[in-house]
Structures are given as structure tokens and as C-alpha cells.
Amino acid sequence: RATMKSLQFISAEAVVSNAEFARKSLGAVAHNLFPLLFKASYLLEQGNVIHDLVENWPLVDFNMGKLLGPTVDYQEDLSHRTCSVCLESCLTGLRDYVLNHSSPYMKILKVVDLTGIKDVEVQFCECKKTMGRWARTQLLSKLCLELLLYLQQEQCNPGTFKISIDVLIDLFVTERNYELVLQALLKKCCCPLKICCVAFRSDNLTLQKFFYIIKLIDPSLLRKLEIVHNVRLEMEHLEILFNSIHFPLLMSLTLPARTFNVRRFTATDEQMLTNIGEKMGEMTQLTELSMSFSILTGRIQKLLSPLKTPLKMLDVSNCSLNHADMAYLANSFHANHLEALDLSGHDIPELYPSAFFKLLSHSSSVLRSLTLEDCNIQDTHVNMLILGLSPCQKLHEFKFIGNPLSSQALKHLFTFLCELPMLKNVEFPIPRDCYPIGITYPIDDASLCRFDHQKYESVAEELNLILLQANREDVKASTPLFGSYDAAIQETNNELGTYLIKSFKETLEKFSTSFNKMN
Question: Which of 1-5, 99-103, 322-326 has the least mean pLDDT?
Fold first, then answer.
């Protein structure tokens, strides 16, 4: 569907489509037209024009989210276009803004905000080359160091050293770009471009390196902290982190798998858990918490009750929750505020159906995203599920892959889902009748793809027809067999794979050494 453009935007497109003319004319352009020309250049992927616009930016702030988001002249949101050509031109233009002494505009730029860029699966840019969060982290760090080197070696205009621009960015650090980012952060005070980390994600990093870099990013500014794959952070390390660093603005926290394991708890561990809960309670802005694949049986209350602000997002997938945990969640003050909830990997119908439906009922007025993967939801539970979901009129997203449902049950469920007015995304399982008779759930990875593909395609077609007949073409229905799209994993999967192979090799070597000792 084409988005309407104002005459002013069409004129801006005409100007920037002739790159040579646009670049020569910049000196005569009014300040208030720069944002318009920037968005038009971004839409047409005019890298050279983008570079020159940023190099001569005449305004106090440069906010990517606002510049590319819906505007009066062009409603289309371009902030999900992580076009490599455009973003590289943007960042090199920023470096050259500092170095350019012949610009006709006064240098008044104080804040550059890159946090509004959204990484999505499908890209609409012509070049089809994306620059993800990891690559943006890498490039900005590299440009900061290049800038410092240039300022040290060249005879620079004294005014250059007075330039100080805060660059707000979501950093993504792994072993591969650690040294570069580290150097940029260590030399931040000398650089005119000041890296200000608003969100920090860490994968494939030793604990020593993680603890060192987290102190350098200025935790007092941090709003989101994600410690995800292959950072071996356990409960005692988390306690050290919270005791040694204060996160006053932290709104979102993601912890790696196996941070907690209550099965091997001692009295000391119980005290440690209490301390962690109390420290999280001091984070008055915290509203999003993800603790998937930890073992938290019977300890949810101890962790969450000290929180003073209700959670809007909670991911406790595969955390071995018991009835007491679910009852606490259903009755807690968090329940009425939950906009996103992930309870995957729990046998909900068998263990605590009434507590779950109570939780669903309390969160129904605000709930936007619900994930119930591998929850043993069967055909006999569908009517109850429909009853529970009926009040969830704001639901945007419902994911329930890995459940043993027949194609008939899925059709029944889809007929109901059409009635949820805000629904946009559904992830449904391969129907049970597409697998060989006797398949057991949860299905192991080896058997996951051994289904009747032709039959699945036929069922998927019928489900999409149900949506079509209800005029719900706006709903995207899919079956991502190996989980939803994750931009960060997509961007660093080679490094992740190498790390996993290395870990596996080390484990085998240890086993071999132990075995030889025994013999």
C-alpha cells in the first residue's frame, strides 16, 4: 500500500535524486529543510547526499528515530531499514562533521541518537545489505579511534577540540569486536564523539571481559542490559554485579540461561537470591525481566516481590515453575500490568490451569504478546484456551509452536483468533497429524523436520483462508520451526557457531583427560 507524500517531500526527492546537484546546493538550503532532505535521501538510498547532509548538519540534535519515523510530509516509517549504504554514509558523515572546517553552518550539534533504528527480518532497501547492531557498534568504535588518530597527527583547527557530541547507541559486544570497542570507550574523554551506551548486549564473552567493559560504559545511563549467549554468568556473579554497580535507569534486564539453579541451593544460596531480589527492588525503573532456562522452582516470589514497579514484560520460559510460583504471579501486582508474557516449556494444562487462567484474566486488559510454546496444549484444551483469550482484546502476538494440536483444533482456534481486533502475528505448530503416529512431545530436534510437508502446506493454506475470509489479511501466520527471528543471532551466528564448537571440543578434551586418569 503506497503511502501519501506531500508536495514538499516529492520536491525533496527530486532534489536528492540528482546527487551532484544536491551536494552542490547544500550551502543554500534552509536549516529546517535538512530533516526533510535526509529522509528523502534515506528512502532513495543516496549515500553521498546523506553523508554531506550529516557532515553539514546545522541543528542541535540528530535523532534517527524521529528523522526516519512517520512525519507530516511522509507517513512511512523508515526506521526499520538498516540499510548498510545509508547507515555507513551517516556515520562517516558524522566523523567528517568534526573534521570539516569549511562548512557554511555553525557547529551546534550536541546529541546524535542512533537508538531508534530497528533491526527486522525483512529489509526493503534496494541494496539488500543490512548493518545490524553489532556492525553499527563496530563502525562507530572504529570511526572514533580514526578520528582520535587524525586529531593527534594533523595540524587541526583549535575549534575542533571544543566539539563535544554525545552519540547515543545500543552497543552489542562479542569477543570479536571487544578490543575495538574497549579502546574507543577507554579514550572516550579525548574524542569529540562521545559514545553514550543506552542499551548493552553481550554474547560470547568471558566474565572478566564482561565485568571490565560494563564499568566503562557508564552504567548510570543504561536502560537495557542483555547478557545472553555464552556469558557464563551464575547467581554469585550476578550478586557481585549488582553489589558493585548501580543501575538507576535500568528498565530491561535479560539474564543468560542457567543463571539460577535452585536444585543445588544451600542456605548461602538462599540468602544470595534474597540479596539479588532486594537489589532488583532498588531498580525503580525496571519493568522488563527475562530469565529463561533457569531453574527457579518455588522462588519466583522471593525474586519478584521486592520489585517496587510492576513488570510489563516477563519471560520465565523453561524455568520449571511450580504451582506456588504460578499462584504468586496470578495474585501479584505485576499481573494487571503484564503486556508481554512468556511461559513456554511448562505443562500448563496439567500443573496449574486455574492459576494460569487467573493470571491471563488479570493481564487481559493490557496483554499484547503471549508465548506458550511447548506447553502441552492439546485438542481437549482449545475451548478453555479460547475462553481465556477472549478478554485479551489488545493481543498483538500469540506464539504457541511445539504444542500437540491437530489440524482440526488449529482451524477451530484460528476461527476464534480472527475475532481479536489487534492481532498481527501468530506462530502456530506443525499439526500433530502431520507427524508419524506415536510421536512424543516435546519433539526432539532430530524428529522436528520429519513431518508430511505436503499435508502441512495444505493445512497452512486452509488456516490462511480462514484469515482471508474474515478479512484478516493483516495477520501474519507462520511456523518458525527453530524459533522466532533474532536479529542479534542472525548477525553473529558464525561467531556463535565457532564458540559452541570450541566449547564442545574443550568438554571432550576434559572428558578424555579424566577418562585417561581413571585408567
Answer: 1-5
Domain layout of the chain by residue ranges: 7-131, 245-488
Three-class DSSP category at 89: helix
Q: What is the mean pLDDT of the chain?
A: 93
Question: Is the model's pLDDT at 500 over the cut of 70?
Answer: no
Q: Given this model, what pLDDT does residue 126 score?
A: 80
Element at 225 (helix H, strand E): strand 224-227
> pLDDT: is 494 or 503 the higher one?
494
Task: Select from 167, 181, 198 the least CA-distant residue to 135.
Answer: 181
Region 55-60 average pLDDT: 95
Backbone phi, then psi, for 194, in 5-degree steps?
-100, 110
Q: What is the DSSP letter of 188?
A: G
- The residue that leads in pLDDT, 117 or 497, is 117
pLDDT recorded at residue 514: 62
At 64, which amino acid appears? Answer: M
Q: Are 118 and 174 in contact (CB under 8 A)?
A: no
| Beta pairing, strands 476-478 & 252-254 | unpaired
CA–CA separation, 319 and 294 (whole Å): 5
Specify which residues 315 forms β-bridges with.
290, 342
What digits encode the pLDDT tens for the residues 37-55? Answer: 999 999 999 999 999 999 9
What is the Cα–Cα distance from 341 to 343, expressed in whole angstroms?
A: 7
Q: Is the pTM of this model over 0.85?
A: yes
DSSP 356-398: HHHHHHHHTTT--EEE-TTS---GGGHHHHHHHHTT-TT--EE
User: What phi-psi label fits residue 467: left (phi over 0), alpha (psi between -120 and 50 degrees) or beta?
Assistant: alpha
- Sequence-distant (6+) residues with CB within 8 A of 160 are 98, 99, 101, 151, 192
Give the pLDDT confidence score for residue 105 in this predicted structure: 72
**Backbone torsions φ then ψ of 393, nearest 5 degrees:** -75, -10
Neighbours of 105 (CB within 10 A): 18
For residue 173, list its beta bridge partners.
Answer: 202
Could you identify the residue written with the cell 527486522? Answer: 120
Residue 404: left (phi > 0), alpha (psi -120 to 50), or beta?
A: beta
DSSP state, residue 170: E
pLDDT band at 512 (very low <50, low <70, confident <90, very high): low
Q: Within 13 Å and on the Cβ side, how many CA atoms surround 105?
A: 22
Radius of gyration of the chain (CA): 26
As a whole number of angstroms, the distance between CA 95 and CA 145 comes to 10
- Mean pLDDT, rounded, for 447-476: 97
Cis before residue 442, ω within 30 degrees of 0?
A: yes
Which DSSP letter does residue 104 get?
Answer: S
- Going by the DSSP 8-state scheme, the letter that residue 161 receives in this structure is G
Contact 382, 409 (CB under 8 A): yes
Q: What CATH number labels 245-488?
A: 3.80.10.10
